[in-house]
UniProtKB/TrEMBL annotation:
The gene is Mitd1. Gene3D superfamilies: MITD, C-terminal phospholipase D-like domain, Phosphotransferase system, lactose/cellobiose-type IIA subunit. InterPro entries: MIT_dom (IPR007330), MIT_dom_sf (IPR036181), MIT_domain_contain_protein1 (IPR052817), MITD1_C (IPR032341), MITD1_C_sf (IPR038113), MITD1_N (IPR045331). SMART domains: MIT. Keywords: Coiled coil. This is MITD1 protein. It comes from Aramus guarauna. Residues 1-71 form the MIT domain. Residues 45-72 form a coiled coil. CDD domains: MIT_1, MIT_C.
């Protein structure tokens, strides 16, 4: 298994898919280390150690390359969420990028609207996203939301819902600034540590729960998702709205 994993790492490395390659190298190295522990033949142990050393060196080189890409603003990671896939809660998706220095967040999503919008729970999803920010480990003080205004019967519900979230966040020392745009189409989330995440469906990539007492209603790691693509970038300068 270790040999197969490392083989896959090399293939990904040659294809310049460095992020995936690094994960495979790390997994392969761990598996090979277990083999070394179980091997009694000293000659075999030595060969394994030599290979492990080579793979560790390459993994470190890839780490440095990825770090340089981040510093140069060229980092790009893509995550494909398959139809009905689970395990993609906001915590799983964003926690890696919410370092302690994050104090300001920008959310652009045209569909942060009322809870009865055709099978959408957009306001609740935005609230859940805010809850994740409040829990930390980041020290968010300001959240900037740019969305479109519901021109239909749900306008009052949208406004009152956002005002309620705004007031609730204020109790935690967080300011929510809301702006509306009639021409917004893109969906992206930016943190002031340089990370930018673009999700094809915005925050609304979860499927409607089958019932109020079905698994996945409360725990979003267990909630099936719509198919979408997540693109993660790192830039030196995070532009503001």
């Amino acid at each position: 298994a270790g040999a197969e994993t490392v083989k896959r790492a090399v293939e990904l490395d040659l294809a310049s898919r460095f992020q995936e390659s690094l994960v495979c190298y790390q997994e392969g190295i761990d598996l090979l280390l277990q083999v070394v522990k179980a091997t009694k033949d000293e000659a075999k142990k030595q060969r394994y150690r030599q290979k492990i050393s080579e793979y560790m060196t390459r993994a470190e080189d890839i780490k440095k390359h990825i770090e340089k890409e981040k510093q140069d603003g060229k980092y790009h990671k893509q995550i494909r969420i398959e139809e009905n896939a689970t395990g993609f809660s906001y915590e799983k998706l964003f926690q890696e990028y919410l370092t302690e220095i994050v104090s300001e967040v920008w959310v652009e999503d045209p569909y942060i609207r009322h809870v009865h919008q055709a099978s959408r729970y957009s306001l609740y999803n935005f609230l859940r996203f805010c809850e994740m920010l409040v829990k930390g480990p980041c020290k968010v003080k300001t959240i900037n939301l740019l969305t479109s205004c519901d021109e239909g019967s749900g306008k009052n519900q949208q406004i009152s819902g956002l005002e309620e979230i705004q007031q609730s966040l204020r109790n935690y020392g967080v300011t929510l600034n809301v702006a509306f745009s009639s021409s917004i189409h893109d969906r992206e989330i930016r943190f002031n540590n340089g990370w930018m995440i673009k999700i094809g469906r915005g925050l609304d990539y979860f499927k409607k729960p089958q019932g109020r007492f079905s698994i996945g209603y409360c725990d979003f790691d267990l909630r099936p998702c719509h198919e979408t693509t997540v693109d993660v970038f790192h830039t030196k300068h995070t532009r503001k709205m």
